[in-house]
Amino acid sequence: MKASSILTAVVLLFLVGIPISSLSQTSTKSARRRLPNRSRRVRVTQKTEAARLIRTVLDAQAAAWNRGDIEGYMNGYDRSPKTEFVGGDSITRGWQEVLDRYKKRYDTREKMGTLTFSDLEITMLSKDAALVLGRWRLQRAGDEPHGTFTLLFRKKKSGWKIVHDHSSSA
To answer: How many separate helices (H) and strands (E) can be counted in the chain?
Structure first.
């Protein structure tokens, strides 16, 4: 029984990442050993902040859409000729071209309806890139189109921006 308790303790120390040889070292070593945990907390906090900022972009997009402001909605996208929108059987490249596509497709307030995003999953890929998976829904007088999307966000000087949008309809 005593041997198995010692083995369990050694396995737990190994899983936590504490080298057995460091157990008898000075408190300075112990303080250094805690730094990675602080570092992990900083990374988690940064990821949490990035996710919050990305949600803010999506909230601002929905609010602009629901005001009938397509250009305000497009503020969530990177103003770059490399920005991409994939939907249906088409690929649209360039911020201006994506804006023109939206303006052509949603040329009246009735066609725009009320936009909601839901089931958002934000996965940080790096400190300046995130993948967002979610659902979109338009509530309109005669129908309720909806679907899913995958967005690639990049952190730019102007904030978090969509550089690639792949949306599908149900």
So the answer is: 5, 6
